[in-house]
Amino acid sequence: MSHTILNPxxxxxxxxxxxxxxxxxxxxxxxxxVAGQYGSGPDGSVVSDDFAEQVRRxxxxxxxxxxxxxxxxxxxxxxRTYVVDPDFDKLGAIARAVGACGDNPPPQTVxxxxxxxxxxxxxxxxxxxxxx
Length: 132
Hints:
Layout: E1 4-6, E2 22-24, E3 30-38, H1 51-67, E4 76-84, H2 88-98, E5 108-113, E6 123-131
Helix pairs in contact: 1-2
């Protein structure tokens, strides 16, 4: 593994919510930054108006981007997610998708927004991954 996830005593257990509090990288780790990915097909069009489907596709797109560097979702050390009109159902869909990152999810910030780059985008995710 390229990093260590730690949820310190004294803080609530965030894992059921799809994130962790901290990630530590080993000395000399190489970072890969993935720009915001949304639920798009290869032509850039939004694949569905369903929030959960957009989340799944956005994470698939992150996996493709990381794969180009020989990495996978288990190498993600931080996520930043943007959600149009967040609610608990949407947070659940995000937590399920983050499960693809492994049993110890990376630190994540969820940011509620009024809108994203183009109409129809309901979710976007940025990722930072590491290689030891």
